[in-house]
Design goal:
The chain folds into 3 domains: 75 residues, Ubiquitin-like (UB roll); 116 residues, Alpha-Beta Plaits; 358 residues, Rossmann fold. By secondary structure, it is an alpha/beta fold. The radius of gyration is 25 Å and the shape is globular. The strands form 5 sheets. Strands 2-1-5-3-4 form a 5-stranded mixed β-sheet, sandwiched between helices.
């Protein structure tokens, strides 16, 4: 690779040809502040916070879009640069809703951090402020335009990562506002509720709809039996809310923390992840043997399901009819568990802790009531659980390790890997392979479907039959994959799709990773590897070996795809308009 040499702050620095000045400086250990910039996603030079002084140039240059050239002389900390950055941030603050103490991003706000780093103690440009209404109609996402800094990160994430593109800049000049076209509510457009816009927002302009108070109210109600389920991905991300290293598994400390909040039972969504494999695996085999609609496409990700309903309704018949593990759990909590525990299901209140904002939408879908009640009552994101624990004065780091309650807390490693892209596929293959062959697998790690590559393909031999599978994560990748299938360019038997990049470990409700941390590590890869370590350390690693799932079928469901299973654990999907208001 061709190298060049430039001078940054008086020091000779080597850089790769084609790198920007920002990249060259970071590689040399020189930090240039940014706000709109997000590596690989938003590189547009809009905010002007990253300006530098270039010898021979007539004005300051935005380093995030300025290509480094051999012999270039750069100053990143001259008086003119410092003054420009400070003025830029003061102007942003002059039109910002400065509610820092009550803002959901207080202490984790990139604008707040910039103001501190630049030593801003006064704002000279007080004047008119743009006024835009709060959009809180979505069940998943709140949009507060008066906190928006027009960085356009959400626009890039929604269009590039997700291929949805519901965000744009409306109006002009001082009245510019980022949101759906014609300033519609997120609830009135084809938003998938995935929450990736929240994850890239540097401020509090986008956040999940907070439901913590609903859970506090339920816990305080003596007539309610409140149970909680925890998704696979949060056990390797919740620790970040308490300063632990990214990817630290905190499963048993998390259980202890939830008990101290007052939940009557602490269960695990991994249990119903194992159950999903039993149902979905047998559904796949049934379609394969009986000429059913193929490829079978997984249905665990509610953001993906909503995307399919809006943009690819022709594939709805390909979707697995299985509910997601979250919804399966809710249905069983208010039937099977209620029966075993001798509790009136009307008194059972189910709380889900999920890495996903779209789960808030999913639990409110009208068809998710097969138990005779709303299957899941409230969904909290990983971030909300972190806030709830801090409200209660509970420090996760100091807690002992405790076990999940039985029977809905028993799971396998196959259930755990649902949290990473490729995990559902691998878990299914572990079970399907043994069901088909009747033999124990010599190697249960299907590494060909692992990793953070956008689209992965593999051919698996099952008892003489070649099964072609594909895995996509991030809706833009799902779009590419579906277009190939639609155009006859690719043929598969089984496809896994996760709406969020990296799968659930990169979910829209996970701890927010700042732009600076994204420079240092791929958070999706770090959390994903942690999920596979959890799997490797589990005593059981195949869903069909879960004794609690075996007992569930024996005592209650009968067998996979039975009439009772279909009633409680399966569902249907509905075509939705791309432009709901039209």
């Amino acid at each position: 690779m061709e190298m060049i040499e430039l001078t940054i702050d008086g020091k000779k620095v080597k850089a790769q040809k084609g790198q920007t000045v920002l990249e060259a400086a970071r590689a040399a250990g020189v930090k240039i502040p940014t706000l709109c910039y997000l590596k690989g996603i938003n590189e547009i030079g809009a905010c002007r916070v990253c300006v530098v002084e270039v010898e021979g140039a007539r004005s300051l240059q935005a380093s995030c879009v300025l290509e480094a050239v051999d012999g270039m002389v750069i100053k990143t900390n001259s008086p003119a640069v410092r003054e420009s950055r400070k003025t830029t941030v003061e102007l942003l603050l002059s039109d910002h809703k400065r509610e820092c103490l009550t803002c959901i991003r207080n202490g984790n706000c990139e604008l707040q951090r910039l103001a501190e780093d630049l030593g801003i103690r006064d704002i000279q440009y007080e004047g008119a402020k743009a006024r835009h209404p709060l959009d809180d109609f979505s069940p998943s996402i709140i949009r507060d335009p008066e906190k928006c800094v027009l960085c356009r990160r959400c626009i890039s994430a929604c269009s590039q990562l997700q291929g949805v593109g519901i965000y744009s800049v409306n109006e002009r000049g001082f009245n510019s506002v980022v949101g759906p076209a014609f300033n519609e509510s997120l609830n009135d457009v084809a938003c998938t509720m995935c929450g990736q816009c929240i994850n890239v927002c540097p401020v509090g302009a986008l956040s999940e709809k907070e439901d913590i108070d609903k859970v506090w109210d339920a816990l305080a109600d003596p007539d309610k039996h409140v149970v909680v389920q925890t998704a696979p991905a949060i056990r390797v991300s919740l620790g970040e809310e308490f300063g632990l290293e990214m990817g630290s598994p905190v499963t048993k400390k998390m259980v202890a923390a939830l008990r101290r909040l007052g939940f009557d039972r602490v269960f695990d969504t991994d249990f119903t992840a194992d159950l999903t494999i039993m149902e979905e695996g047998h559904e796949f085999l049934h379609r394969l043997k009986n000429g059913g609609k193929l490829p079978l496409i997984t249905s665990c990700s509610p953001g993906w399901i909503k995307f399919c309903e809006h943009y690819y309704p022709e594939f709805l018949e390909n979707l697995s009819t299985c509910k997601s593990p979250q919804q399966m759990f809710g249905a069983l909590a208010k039937t099977y568990y209620a029966q075993k525990a001798g509790i009136d299901p009307e008194k059972i209140f189910v709380v889900s802790i999920m890495p996903c904002t779209a789960k808030k939408f999913e639990c409110q879908r009208p068809e998710m009531t097969d138990s005779g009640y709303r299957d899941v009552d409230v969904v909290l994101t990983t971030r909300e659980l972190g806030r709830m624990l801090r409200q209660a004065g509970i420090d996760l780091k100091t807690l002992p390790e405790e076990e999940f309650d039985e029977p809905l807390g028993i799971s396998t490693g196959a259930g755990a890997i649902f949290g990473a892209t490729g995990g559902v596929m691998e878990a299914a293959l572990r079970t399907v392979a043994e069901v088909v062959t009747g033999k124990e697998l010599e190697k249960i790690d299907f590494e060909q479907v692992r990793g953070v590559e956008g689209i992965k393909e593999a051919t698996i031999e099952l008892n003489g039959t070649e099964v072609k599978v594909a895995v996509a994560h991030g809706l833009a990748n799902a779009k590419k994959l579906l277009e190939r299938v639609k155009n006859g360019e690719a043929e598969y038997h089984f496809i896994e799709v996760m709406a969020c990049p990296g799968g659930c470990v990169g979910g829209g409700g996970q701890p927010i990773v700042s732009a600076d941390v994204r420079w240092e590590k791929d958070y999706k890869e770090v959390r994903g590897k942690a999920i596979y370590k959890v799997d490797k350390n589990m005593p059981l690693r195949k869903s069909h070996e879960n004794p609690a799932v075996q007992a569930l079928y024996k005592e209650f469901l009968g067998e996979p795809l039975s009439e009772k299973s279909h009633h409680l654990l399966h569902t249907h999907y509905t075509e939705r308009c791309k432009h709901p208001k039209k």
